[in-house]
Write a structure and sequence with these properties.
CATH superfamily of the largest domain: Hotdog Thioesterase
CATH architecture of the largest domain: Roll
Strand order of the largest sheet: 1-2-4-5-6-3-9-12-11-10-8-7
Number of strands: 12
Number of helices: 5
CATH topology of the largest domain: Thiol Ester Dehydrase, Chain A
Largest sheet: 12 strands, antiparallel
Length: about 290
C-alpha cells in the first residue's frame, strides 16, 4: 500500500461492540505510537457515534507511551446529545491501562458573526523545493537520523518555508511555517479530512519550542513527549490540498514547552487552530 492508503487503513477502526473500537499501528520500526495517530484514531472513534455534526474542538491528554506491537482499544462515552452540540469522551487503552483520553465536541453548522486574523506573509508552496529537491539539496549534509526521517515514504508532504533549523545549532526565533498536504488524494468525506489533519497537526508543533535553544526533536540527549493536544475546527478544508501550518512557541519552562498553530488555506482562510504542551528535558541516565 502507498503511505496514504496505509494511513486510511489505520484510520478505518474495527467496531468491536457499541461504542467500542480497535485501532492498529503501522509496523515501521517506531518504539512508540506516534501521538498524531492516537489523536486521529480517537477522533474517528468519537465521530462514529455522532450523526450529521462536524467536530468543532477536541482536547486530549497523553498518559503513557503507546505500544505499536499491539492494538489500541478506543472506548467512547456518549456524554451528551444536545440540540446544537454533541459531546464525547474517548479513552485509548492498551495492556489494561489508559494511554490517552480525549473529549471532543461536535456542533451543527450555524450562520453568525465572522472575523479572522489574516494569514501571515509567507512563500507559496509551489515556489518552495519539493521533497525530492530537499533531499538532493539538504539531506547529504544532514545527520543520519534527520536523513532517515525525511527519506522514508510518508502520507504527509511537508514543505518548510525555512529549513535552517534542521541544519544548524543557531538559536532561532521560536516560529515556523510549514505547508502540508497528503501525498495522494482523499475521499470526499469531511470527517476523514478532520481525522487526517488531526494526525498531521502533531508532526512539527513541539519542535517549534526548541528553536530558541538551538535544539531539535532529533537530538538523542533530549526526552520529548506530547503531554496534551487541542484543536479547534473553524471552517471546512481539504487536507489533500495545501494548508499553511504557522506555528509559534510563546513559552518554555519547568520542563515543558507550549506551542500554538494556525492552519490556513492558500487563499488565506483560517480553518483550524491548534495548541500543545510537551515535555522537554534532558534525557536522564539509564540505571
Amino acid at each position: 500500500m502507498s503511505a496514504v492508503d496505509q494511513l486510511l487503513h489505520i484510520l478505518d477502526l474495527e467496531t468491536l461492540e457499541v461504542d467500542l473500537f480497535r485501532g492498529r499501528s503501522p509496523q515501521v520500526g517506531w518504539q512508540r505510537v506516534f501521538g498524531g495517530q492516537v489523536i486521529s484514531q480517537a477522533l474517528v472513534a468519537a465521530t462514529r457515534t455522532v450523526k450529521d455534526r462536524p467536530v468543532h474542538s477536541l482536547h486530549g491528554y497523553f498518559m503513557r507511551p503507546g505500544d505499536p506491537s499491539v492494538p489500541i482499544i478506543y472506548e467512547v462515552d456518549r456524554i451528551r446529545d444536545g440540540g446544537s452540540f454533541t459531546t464525547r469522551r474517548v479513552r485509548g487503552i492498551q495492556h489494561g491501562a489508559a494511554i490517552f483520553s480525549m473529549e471532543a465536541s461536535f456542533h451543527v453548522r450555524e450562520e453568525g458573526f465572522e472575523h479572522q486574523l489574516a494569514m501571515p506573509e509567507t512563500t507559496a508552496p509551489d515556489l518552495l523545493p519539493g521533497e525530492a529537491e530537499l533531499k538532493a539539496k539538504f539531506l547529504s549534509k544532514a545527520p543520519p537520523n534527520v536523513r532517515h526521517y525525511w527519506e522514508r515514504e510518508r502520507p504527509i508532504e511537508m514543505r518548510p518555508v525555512d529549513f535552517a533549523h534542521y541544519l544548524s545549532r543557531d538559536r532561532l526565533e521560536p516560529r515556523q511555517q510549514v505547508w502540508v498536504r497528503t501525498t495522494g488524494p482523499l475521499p470526499n468525506d469531511p470527517h476523514l479530512h478532520a481525522a487526517v489533519l488531526a494526525y498531521t497537526s502533531d508532526f512539527t508543533l513541539l519542535d517549534t519550542a526548541l528553536f530558541a535553544h538551538g535544539r531539535s526533536v532529533f537530538d538523542k540527549d533530549l526526552q520529548l513527549a506530547s503531554l496534551d493536544h487541542a484543536m479547534w475546527f473553524h471552517a471546512p478544508f481539504r487536507v489533500d490540498d495545501w494548508l499553511l501550518y504557522a506555528q509559534d512557541s510563546p513559552y518554555t519552562g519547568g520542563g515543558r514547552g507550549f506551542c500554538r498553530g494556525s492552519l490556513y488555506t492558500p487563499d488565506g482562510r483560517l480553518v483550524v487552530s491548534t495548541a500543545q504542551e510537551g515535555l522537554i528535558r534532558r534525557a536522564r541516565p539509564k540505571v
